[in-house]
Amino acid sequence: MNNERLKKYPRLWVFFILVLFLNGSLCAAELSIAVASNFKYTLQKLAADFKAKTGHELIVSSASSGKLYAQIKHGAPFDVFLSADEKRADLLVSEKIASADSAYVYALGKLVLVSNVEPSNLDGRQSCKQVLGSNNLLRLAIANPKIAPYGHAAYQVLDKLGLWKQLQSRIIMGENISQTFQFVATKNADAGFVAQSMIDLAMTGMSMNRKGGVKKYACLWHVPTDLYSPIKQKMVVLNKAKNKQAVEEFVRYMKSSDARDIIVTTGYDTLDN
After folding, report:
1. Per the CATH hierarchy, to which homologous superfamily does domain 111-222 belong?
2. Residue 104's beta-bridge partner residues?
3. What is the dihedral of CA 209, 61, 90, 152, to 10 degrees?
4. Is 113 helix (H, G, I), strand (E, B) or coil?
5. Dist. CA 72–CA 77, nearest whole Å
6. How many helices (H) does the chain have, and how many strands (E)?
7. Which residue from 84, 80, 73 is spatially nearest to 29, judged by alpha carbons?
8. In the CATH scheme, what is the code of domain 3-108+231-265?
């Protein structure tokens, strides 16, 4: 198509520009992602990198894995589900709502006890464990074990330590791990079991916003992984996903070394490490 012809037929300009616009629009897509609340910050970083590489934009909705699972069961129009455990993702596969071929453990979560209460004896990093036996511990925050994988892990820890019955009356439950962390951050709880990724994010934020150094919690206990079942965070593609090509690109991206680097630097492990 030459310039003389375009000048002779102005409408061809409009058609030509419209075709270019549509082609550009078809190259980029919006994907609706349901993500467990503990992984929201990491997904935001992944989304920025993914968009830079592909042009596709992620529309993120976060809540507890149990709540998101229920929404998906009731027809919520998500394309991909990033659960904080394997259970809900596997249920969606068994119920023919998600694709078995797409199932992938994208991260391994880490559980941490964070406390506003000082332990009685400081004998190293794990001394924070002593807070669980302190009379100063009046409110212990955990996520709801019935709907939040990190809450279930916290229950397992307390049960294995023989402290569940002793502390049950002092426990306050968050709907998800983000709310649980807020209980501790606002000192509405004396201590709480949260995701390592949330501690890393909080410390980063405090170091950026405080000139006088980072305000730390009284203590942290990185809970040994033999006290709770592995928190294998699994993703699945929903069968009703709209833009299959863009979804496939996202799945490939989540398995890439670039994605793994972001996941590890924000407080998780991966099976490929």
Report:
1. Periplasmic binding protein-like II (3.40.190.10)
2. 235
3. 50
4. strand
5. 7
6. 11, 10
7. 80
8. 3.40.190.10
